[in-house]
Specification:
heterodimer; A: mainly alpha; two-stranded antiparallel ribbon; 2 strands; B: about 525 residues; alpha/beta; Rossmann fold; 6-stranded mixed beta sheet; 20 strands; globular
Chain lengths: ~375, ~525
């Protein structure tokens, strides 16, 4: 019945491997196509000139020195949280609790900052704040890790739920320490004395955070790639039976890695409280624990690629909110543009893993 | 072939080429299949048999070449289009929904108008009666044995009216008895005018079931032979491309000393079922102790208990070192046991499930045993890299480089990497389980050689095997397990296949004294 030969228009095959530069070409093309589509959508919906819209995006990120520093700080905090998640993900432990862990870091730092501001020198206060923040974050990751290693509970749900517990705890203490009374806000802590504030470098409070992020990026790369711990993490993630077979203590590795992961999230919380905001709110972390998931995944858990992916996400986020203000649109429009761009960035992964063959010509690349 | 001029082939491939990136899976393959014949497709691991068949059944689309069905050129873009052409394939990994019944699985995805399970079940029973299948249409898949699941897959294909059936290594998961049953069914199909293409590694099966053999080597079509006029040696040589010696050496054990002393070993699985009961035996250096038994008689638990991976309820496992000191292994962790010189080369049903990490490259897999060595927090990458290169060279592992992920290698090469690493740590006890499962004949013999070399080095080898012929050729002594108990220990040089077969199903065999 099917006598006429119909060569299919396109057929899809899995790629065995792809040269790295071609992979980047595909990604860049995806971003360009996303920008074109965003332009069309902007013209149709609000009648604005797309070039202006993109200009606004760039201006929103790089417009003034102040904006650049803001952007870099945002980038640094997101990168630190993403770096924290990476070893857990490499181990196939889906830590969705970055937000909660960072918030617990905020809470730990704030507690010390408020309770002990009069009883120790400033340098010791800052060190204690740091330790409390690391402990808070580590504790929040340790709990699900312990349950996972002992009773094999589902870490995705567990870490997710721990976020809400952390938010509620922070909400309670915000009211507990509210200042001034009745405001339901903590306000700037130690505004006059600046006790527990991280020192500024050349009057700039962001540089230190950026340096921490850079050191952590290199450190995490080395840890995952060259250390014995990093190797154990990879083996446990790939195959638990094999890990047990060579005598790796799987439970120990899970707990150890999650304590590390949580502690780094806690560090991000410390930097927010002590370095930039000098206050604590329930929204201080602002969903970076979830954005970090995307950053880590898109970069395939490679810390250096994570610099790029976190930059893209921060750029988009800040650009989109700038568009909303400049063109008098609400936040949703920025979200639409971000959505379109992410769709293309994530969608292009398909073309990295699969190849399309067309009826004429061979091995042609689409995008 | 004389008949070629008279008959039109039901299926003809002309110049089929398929590439995956730089890898050529099939190159310019031309092949004809005739109505009512059973064609065996023979080739080493990675020779492109499955890829070729996947193109006929609509999973892949060829890059070049054409496919003709009954003389008409066709294009097969999906398994559904293959079914429309009356071609059906039974894959190595079953594609069934566990929670559905046989009938539900068989009619899944078919559009026959109003859904009528009863009528479908009736049709299934008719098919079963016609060819001699044993299937309960109302049984759920998760209640079925591997062999029953395979039967459902075959019936599924027949239900869809397939006249050309492709079976990808159907016997790899079957016991000898089940294989016989399957072959009886295939012969019935042939009588009914169906065409069968069967992929297999096992020479004896090729000779007993097929009418004609087609041989692939490195993605290329080599030749075809009428089975009745072929012999094992000739087929093996054509498959491998050079002459292969099909003998397993069995040197006399030299100066055997007791290495393992196991007494009253009892093991329960996590759900409380007794897996091993009161097992006692010794293993000696310079000797290969074979372990025979029906799959699931406690072989896995026994080896894992020795390697420290299995919780033991009762009994003793003593390791005796070169000075004659006895040491209890029970209660020690796998790391400690491995350092003492007990090495486990285990091939579970999922080949990469334990022992190797599929996504890591060869060098990193070599590191699994050695990464803790050296002071400091960083790993030494140079030594494993050198070891990987050494193993690749020594065991002739076919790989683009030592930085290729292990999962990309074919089964035989994966096995060589695993065995190579385990041997590299100079073990005094080598535990192997199903090391040649799924391997082609050439790779299998390489592995037997490796094991024999270890024996000559004075290693105590415990060899868990499936193929009784090989056990009888390779092992000095054979312990037979039956339902977790020791059914008997026989001399590998004097025992017969029949004797062991009986012991596998009944403790002590035919009333022998224990």
């Amino acid at each position: 019945m099917n006598s006429a030969v119909k060569v299919p228009l396109v057929h899809i095959t899995r790629r065995k491997n792809i040269v790295w530069y071609r992979a980047w070409i595909v990604r860049v093309v995806a971003v360009i196509m996303a920008l074109i589509l965003c332009g069309i959508v902007t013209m149709l919906l609000v009648g604005a000139n797309p070039i202006d819209v993109y200009k606004t995006m760039v201006v929103g990120n790089f417009g003034t020195a102040r904006k650049i520093w803001f952007m870099l700080q945002d980038l640094a905090i997101l990168l630190i949280i993403s770096l924290a998640l990476a070893p857990a993900f490499r181990m196939r432990f889906w830590n969705l609790g970055g937000d909660g862990q960072a918030l617990m870091g905020c809470l730990g730092a704030t507690t010390i900052m408020i309770l002990f501001r009069d009883s120790m020198p400033n340098w010791l206060l800052i060190i204690c704040m740091l330790l409390a923040a690391l402990f808070g974050g580590a504790l929040w990751a340790f709990i699900p890790a312990f349950f996972k290693s002992k009773w094999n509970t589902n870490e995705t749900l567990f870490t997710l739920m721990m976020n809400y517990v952390a938010t509620q705890l922070v909400a309670y203490f915000v009211v507990f320490w509210e200042n001034p009374k009745g405001s339901s806000k903590i306000g700037i802590i130690n505004q006059r004395t600046q006790l527990g504030w991280l020192p500024t470098i050349g009057g700039n409070k962001y540089i230190l955070i950026i340096i921490v992020a850079v050191l952590l990026t290199v450190g995490m790369f080395v840890y995952m790639r060259y250390s014995k711990h990093g190797y154990e993490i990879s083996v446990v993630g790939e195959s638990e039976p094999t890990a047990r077979y060579v005598g790796i203590k799987v439970r120990k590795v899970i707990i150890r890695t999650l304590i590390l992961s949580g502690a780094i999230c806690g560090l991000a919380g410390f930097l927010l409280v002590s370095g930039t905001d000098h206050t604590m709110t329930t929204t201080l972390v602002g969903g970076r624990g979830f954005t970090g998931v995307m950053v880590a995944w898109l970069a395939k858990f490679n810390p250096f690629f994570m610099v790029i992916t976190s930059f893209v996400l921060v750029f988009l986020g800040r650009g989109a909110s700038e568009i909303s203000t400049m063109f008098g649109l609400n936040d949703s429009f920025g979200a639409i543009l971000t959505g379109i761009i992410l769709f293309f960035i994530i969608g292009c992964e398909f073309f990295l893993n699969y190849e399309l063959h067309f009826r004429h010509g061979k091995n042609k690349e689409v995008q | 072939m004389a008949s070629e001029n008279i008959k039109t082939p039901v299926l003809e491939l002309r110049g089929i080429t398929k590439r995956f990136g730089d890898v050529v899976a099939n190159e310019n393959v031309s092949l004809s299949v005739y109505k009512g014949e059973i064609l065996a497709l023979l080739g080493e691991n990675g020779s492109g048999k499955t890829t070729l068949m996947n193109m006929i059944s609509g999973i892949y689309y060829p890059d070049e070449g054409e496919i003709l069905v009954n003389g008409n050129p066709v294009s097969i873009r999906s398994p559904k289009e293959a079914f429309d052409l009356k071609i059906g394939m039974i894959h190595q990994h079953f594609k069934l929904v566990d929670v559905l019944t046989a009938t539900e699985n068989i009619i899944l995805g078919l559009d026959e108008g109003k859904l009528n399970i009863k009528k479908a079940a009736e049709k299934i029973r008719n098919i079963c009666d016609l060819y001699g299948f044993e299937v309960d249409p109302d049984q759920k898949i998760y209640n079925m044995s591997v062999s029953q699941k395979q039967t459902v897959e075959i019936v599924k294909v027949l239900y869809r009216g397939a006249d050309i059936l492709i079976l990808d290594e159907p016997t790899a998961v079957l016991t000898p008895q089940e294989t016989e049953k399957l072959f009886a069914v295939l012969r019935n199909m042939k009588k009914d005018g169906k065409t069968v293409i069967i992929i297999t590694h096992k020479m004896q099966e090729v000779l007993s079931i097929s009418d004609r053999v087609a041989i692939l080597r490195k993605g290329q079509y080599i030749c075809d032979k009428i089975t009745a006029q072929a012999n094992v040696q000739e087929l093996t040589d054509a498959m491998v491309g050079h002459s292969v010696v099909l003998n397993i050496a069995r040197p006399e054990p030299k100066d055997p000393k007791k290495k393992l002393e196991i007494s009253n070993l009892t093991v329960r699985s996590s759900d409380g079922v007794v897996r091993l009961c009161d097992v006692s035996f010794d293993a000696y250096s310079g000797e290969i102790l074979g372990i025979a038994g029906i799959a699931g008689s406690g072989q896995k638990e026994l080896l894992e208990a020795i390697a420290g991976l299995q919780h033991v309820e009762n009994g003793n496992i003593f390791y005796i070192d070169d000075e004659g000191n006895k040491e209890q292994l029970i209660g020690k962790d796998p790391l400690k046991i491995a350092e003492m010189g007990v090495s486990l080369s285990f091939v579970p049903e999922d080949r990469l499930g334990m022992g190797l990490v599929g996504n890591m490259d060869l060098a990193d897999n070599m590191m699994l045993r050695s990464f803790r060595k050296g002071k400091g927090v960083f790993t030494d990458r140079k030594t494993p890299h050198e070891l990987a290169e050494h193993v690749v060279e020594e065991l002739e592992v076919n790989t683009p480089s030592v930085s290729t992920p292990v999962r990309k290698l074919s089964g035989g090469n994966v096995q060589k990497v695993l065995v190579g690493r385990e041997i590299a740590s100079s073990p005094t006890v080598l535990l192997t389980a199903y090391v040649v499962r799924g391997l082609d004949i050439n790779s299998s013999y390489t592995i037997y050689d490796l094991i024999n070399k270890q024996k000559e080095r004075g290693v105590a080898v415990v060899y868990v095997g499936e193929d009784l012929d090989v056990l009888l050729e390779l092992c000095d002594r054979i312990m037979v397990l039956c339902g977790g108990r020791v059914s008997g220990i026989v001399d590998g040089r004097t025992a017969t296949k029949n004797e062991i077969g009986l012991m596998m199903t009944r403790i002590g065999g035919s009333g022998r004294d224990e």
